[in-house]
Predict the structure.
Amino acid sequence: MAKNTKNKQEENLHDVENALTKTEQFIEDHQKLLSIIIGAIVIIVIGYLGYGKFYVQPKEKEAKEQMFMAERYFETDSFNLAINGDGNNLGFLDIIDSYGITKSANLAKYYTGISYLKLGEYEKAIQYLNKFESEDLLVAPVAEGAKGDAYFELGDNDKALSQYKKAYQMSDNELTTPVYMLKAAGVLEATGKFGGALDIYNELKEKYPNTTEGRSIDKYIARAKIELGK
């Protein structure tokens, strides 16, 4: 038994040695090719790091500086100037076109979408909000909810409801969640689905009683119950 075990170990050792020998032979036979591949990888990594440091970062800084006035116009509800610029300062559309690789350009898509929403250009609002990407727990729900507002104004209640639900389900917080719960329930009421609306109202009351929406929710609950004949 011991002899068999010893023989097995010797066979395994022999296999390992053979594998190592083959690997060494492969490296020796393909040394030039492997050197080229490794060199290419090094160049790609260095290029990527250099691209970020010497191109993207300066562009990001420049974009933030250029977007300053557009943001000020947005804050003062001068939405046309915010979108298109004033002739001397860039608007959000210019930022998107000129600095597309930057975070500022991504944010400009959000601002542009909201601006078009405020101007009543709902399809354009949806177009730019769909291009905006964010994982922020407050901004992302607002962007989705804004799409809901646009769809609602366009008369598409199904898509509006879908967006409002997405907005309040993607982040559990007292600032945005109850707002979009209330809007979702409002769409359900508008389409005669009072039972569904009542469910949302009751959930809002239970989870967010200390919010502005939570403190006024009883009147919505009462109205839905009346419509249901309760």
Q: What stands out?
A: Confidence is low (pLDDT under 50) at residues 45-55. The domain at 11-132 is CATH 1.25.40 (Serine Threonine Protein Phosphatase 5, Tetratricopeptide repeat). The CA atoms of residues 15 and 68 lie 68 Å apart. The chain is about 80% helix and 0% strand.
